[in-house]
Amino acid sequence: MMSTLSRMRVSEAIEGLLDARGSTKRWLAGKLGLTPSALSRYLDGSRPAPVDFYRRVADVLQVPEALLCARAGNDRELNPPTAGAAA
Q1: pLDDT band at 10 (very low <50, low <70, confident <90, very high)
Q2: Which long-range contacts does 71-79 make (Cβ < 8 Å, 24+ apart)?
Q3: Which of 31, 35, 58, 66 has the fewest beta carbons under 10 Å from its own?
Q4: pLDDT at position 3
């Protein structure tokens, strides 16, 4: 079972990916064949997500499923500080 903190981080990662591509949760819900409210309940943990939910999200967003976990768990790995930036 995914902890609340992990679920929040994955949800934030998904929202960040949507923002980066200029898409919305409504768009993602439609691509997944879900209502926007069902998607929100999966993302906030108030409803258990199907086993393949995160794989399907990754497929729709055209990113590796591991990227969602990496973004959720350690954003620094994906976005290392630039030269001269404070770590």
Answers
A1: confident
A2: 71/9, 71/13, 71/16, 71/17, 72/6, 72/9, 72/10, 72/12, 72/13, 73/6, 73/9
A3: 66
A4: 58
